[in-house]
Design brief:
The chain contains six helices and nine strands. It is an alpha+beta fold and 203 residues long. It has a six-stranded antiparallel beta sheet with strand order 4-9-5-6-7-8, with no helix packed on it. The N and C termini lie far apart (54 Å).
Length: 203
């Protein structure tokens, strides 16, 4: 487990290493650094087939996004220990646990002020994944090594490509996602406003 400190130092702020390490050790959580995934930032898997608690977090997150995601998943682990599968994934029990785990990091100055304020606003809402809160996601993206271009930054009617190679034409906004036409099948897909894109053609 001690090797986790060296691993954690590559992914989260220095001030968060000791408390996160203690949680992982005390709860016997196996942390796995995952490849980048477009559908999720992290996940928690309860013990099964002889394996213990496992949490995965995408390797390409900046330190603040990585920490927020990791605490999110640790909260799932804590709720599973107390309630198993008897409560909703992001119900009251998870929200209370997540807030309790996150408060010390907010109070201790781990986050820059803009991230701290966005996180406080996010936690005051009916929240699930930090990736679903556009304001928090925008603030966190400021700290990415290579912020890149997002879908909301290009004009409607633009042709763009997402990681994985699929190509779309940007349509109108539908709440937090844009209605986009995939060029190879002309079907409409909802794509996150903050999805990383490569602009191919602008109208």
């Amino acid at each position: 487990m001690e090797a986790y400190k060296t691993i954690l130092s590559k992914y989260i702020p220095q001030a968060a290493i000791d408390p996160i390490y203690d949680w992982l050790k005390e709860n016997r959580i196996h942390l796995r650094i995952s490849r980048a995934r477009t559908t999720k930032l992290g996940d928690y898997r309860s013990p099964h087939n002889g394996k213990g608690h496992q949490i995965t977090v995408n390797h390409n997150l900046n330190p603040y996004a990585f920490l927020i995601t990791l605490v999110h998943e640790i909260a799932h682990q804590q709720v599973w220990i107390k309630h198993g599968n008897r409560v909703k994934a992001h119900g009251r029990e998870w929200k209370d646990t997540y807030r309790k785990l996150m408060d010390p990091f907010i109070d201790s100055g781990v986050f820059p002020d803009d991230v701290k304020q966005a996180l406080i606003r996010y936690m005051g809402k009916s929240y699930a994944s930090s990736g679903t809160d556009l304001n928090l996601s925008r603030v966190l993206q400021r700290y990415d090594a290579e912020p890149g271009l997002t879908l909301e930054q290009i004009r409607e009617g633009s042709t763009f490509r997402i990681p994985g190679g699929k190509t779309f034409i940007k349509g109108s906004l539908n709440r937090k996602r844009y209605r986009c036409i995939r060029t190879d099948n002309n079907r409409v897909y909802l794509v996150s406003a903050l999805a990383q894109v490569e602009l191919l053609k602008s109208p």
